[in-house]
């Protein structure tokens, strides 16, 4: 793909930054405790003394990342370990806030000529940066054997115009979390529902009301988020965009079917009207599960440890299962983020970034990161190494097995903006501010304009 001119690129990135700021946030799937801690350094770029011929000084690079909690701790400790084990590359790993915040900072830093050598990018944002021609082709840095290590189900969002422009890292899928303790108390199969209809039947038996009708426990909860909607859309046989990528089709029958299912659960008193927005909505749902206020929820495998440990603290056993199958069967989008190397930094920094990225995603490190966080082990070697761990902690295997039904998230440069539009109109439908059809028709029209 031909590179855009520098003037065009800068204006495009700055415009996108303003659009994102107007959106007011991102509803991308967060990590466990994803916004923990401060927002890190403001964009300042990589301050590098380039390695001269014959110099023994290491190449200094910055790695900007956007996950908190256990994931942030692991990344910071791993970066320090890498620096201590060799003297060719010195990595400064900088937490830059959540996915949305990091996206803004990277776009601004590129425009200012002060970009990091490598950065974490949420998978729905990758097409935006790829279309602007700022991501290095990792095929020129890595061998085919290097790239063959990663799980095929996670490589769908790494390709652009014949290039490999990112590598899977903190990757996830949405899964069903079950309060097994409550399910068994109510005489239900603790393996959980397998279809949409069974989900409804379970929710009917699990909802608990006080004598005055007040709901003490919801049967099912989910954040009204485009990621979970994408899953149900795929399960109904739908897509966000047409096969040629030119038309928004989210408002067709499968989309209406998926959104109507949520609306009906709320109307029938089985699912609470979702509380909070964006990351707050995820936190509300997590808290409801771990405190017994909800018996089943949709959430990310990236919050696995916090869900399981939080439930245990309250005397509950939390288990996991595939999202129930829709009319067309099982399906799921993948989520989380990849790591990209930026081609706007000198070649030696790109090569240094690959050395670190290859090390960071080794089988041993991939297994260690997965066990520390709940994210999917990204290589087959890591999966094999975790065999004993899966026996001891079977909840962690669910996401790996669910990858067989994985479908790519929409790969359109405008989807980072379009998903904000979509979630806004999903909320309008569940809040009764619009009918399901009207909400999706309005969303589709605005998403089409965004293209």
From TrEMBL:
User: What Gene Ontology molecular function terms does this protein carry?
Assistant: maltose binding
Family the UniProt entry places it in? Belongs to the bacterial solute-binding protein 1 family.
Matching entries from InterPro entries are given as: SBP (IPR006059)
Q: Does the keyword Transport apply?
A: yes
Q: Where is the signal peptide?
A: 1-21
| GO (cellular component) term, any one | ATP-binding cassette (ABC) transporter complex, substrate-binding subunit-containing
Key words, A-Z: Signal, Transport
Q: Where is this region: Disordered?
A: 27-57
Query: How is this protein named in the record?
Result: ABC transporter substrate-binding protein
GO BP: any one term: maltodextrin transmembrane transport
Organism domain of life: Bacteria
A Pfam short name: SBP_bac_8
PROSITE patterns associated with the record: PROKAR_LIPOPROTEIN
């Amino acid at each position: 793909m031909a590179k855009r001119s520098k003037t065009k690129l800068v204006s495009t990135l700055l415009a996108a930054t303003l659009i994102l700021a107007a959106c007011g946030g991102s509803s991308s799937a967060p990590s466990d405790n994803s916004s923990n801690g401060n927002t890190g350094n403001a964009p300042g770029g990589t301050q590098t003394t380039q390695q001269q011929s014959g110099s023994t000084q290491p190449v200094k690079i910055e790695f900007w990342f956007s996950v908190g909690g256990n994931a942030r701790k692991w990344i910071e400790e791993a970066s320090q370990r890498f620096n201590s084990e060799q003297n060719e590359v010195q990595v400064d790993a900088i937490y830059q806030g959540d996915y949305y915040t990091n996206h803004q900072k990277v776009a601004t830093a590129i425009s200012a000529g002060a970009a990091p050598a490598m950065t974490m990018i949420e998978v729905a944002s990758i097409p935006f940066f790829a279309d602007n021609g700022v991501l290095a082709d990792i095929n020129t840095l890595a061998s085919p054997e290097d790239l063959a290590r990663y799980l095929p189900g996670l490589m769908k969002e790494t390709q652009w115009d014949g290039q490999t422009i990112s590598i899977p890292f903190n990757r996830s899928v949405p899964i069903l979390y079950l309060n097994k303790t409550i399910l068994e108390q109510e005489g239900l199969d603790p393996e959980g529902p397998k279809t949409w209809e069974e989900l409804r039947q379970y929710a009917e038996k699990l909802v608990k009301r006080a004598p005055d009708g007040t709901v003490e426990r919801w049967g099912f909860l989910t954040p009204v988020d485009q990621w979970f909607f994408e899953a149900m859309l795929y399960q109904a046989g739908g897509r966000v965009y047409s096969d040629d990528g030119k038309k928004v089709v989210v408002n067709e029958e499968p989309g209406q079917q998926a959104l109507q299912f949520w609306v009906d659960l709320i109307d029938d008193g089985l699912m609470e009207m979702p509380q909070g927005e964006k990351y707050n909505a995820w936190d509300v749902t997590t808290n409801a599960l771990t405190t017994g206020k909800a018996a089943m929820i949709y959430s990310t495998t990236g919050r696995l440890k916090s869900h399981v440990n939080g439930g245990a603290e309250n005397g509950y056993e939390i288990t996991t299962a595939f999202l129930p199958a829709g009319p067309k069967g099982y399906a799921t989008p993948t989520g989380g983020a990849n790591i990209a190397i930026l081609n706007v930094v000198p070649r030696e920094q790109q090569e240094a970034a690959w050395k670190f990225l290859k090390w960071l995603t080794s089988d041993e490190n991939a297994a260690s990161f997965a066990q520390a966080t709940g994210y999917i082990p990204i290589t087959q070697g890591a999966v094999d190494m975790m065999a004993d761990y899966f026996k001891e902690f079977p909840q962690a295997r669910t996401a790996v097995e669910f990858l067989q039904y994985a479908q790519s998230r929409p790969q359109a440069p405008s989807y980072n903006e379009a998903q904000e539009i979509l979630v806004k109109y999903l909320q309008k439908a569940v809040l009764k501010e619009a009918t399901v059809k009207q909400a999706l028709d309005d969303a589709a029209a605005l998403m089409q304009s965004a293209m």
